[in-house]
Amino acid sequence: MLRHFTKRNDLIRHIIIRFVTAYLTLGCLSDYKIQLMTMFTSI
């Protein structure tokens, strides 16, 4: 019913996707923290 009144748009989906993307990016940075520090200090 909500999709009928919002012309088939989801209200929450975009917020969740943005949050998950930011969370996954931070997780990747955390996983490769040592390698990234080495890369930036090797110059």
Summed up, the helix count is 3
* Count of discrete structural domains: 1
User: What spatial form do the alpha-carbon principal axes imply?
Assistant: rod-shaped
Q: Tell me what portion of residues adopts beta-strand conformation.
A: under 5%
The largest sheet is:
none
What pattern of helices and strands is seen along the backbone?
A: HHH
pLDDT < 50 stretches:
none
**Alpha carbon gap, first and last residue:** 58 Å
Q: What structural category do the secondary elements indicate?
A: mainly alpha
Write down the Rg. 19 Å
Indicate the mean pLDDT.
Answer: 76
Q: How many beta-strand elements? A: 0
Structure write-up:
- This protein is mainly alpha-helical.
- It has one domain (13-43).
- Helix content is 74%, strand content 0%.
- It is built from three helices and no strands.
- The longest helix has 19 residues, at 13-31.
- The mean pLDDT is 76.
Topology:
Blueprint: H1 2-5, H2 13-31, H3 33-41
Task: Summarize the entry for a quick read.
This protein is an all-alpha fold. It is 74% helix and 0% strand. It has helices at residues 2-5, 13-31, 33-41.
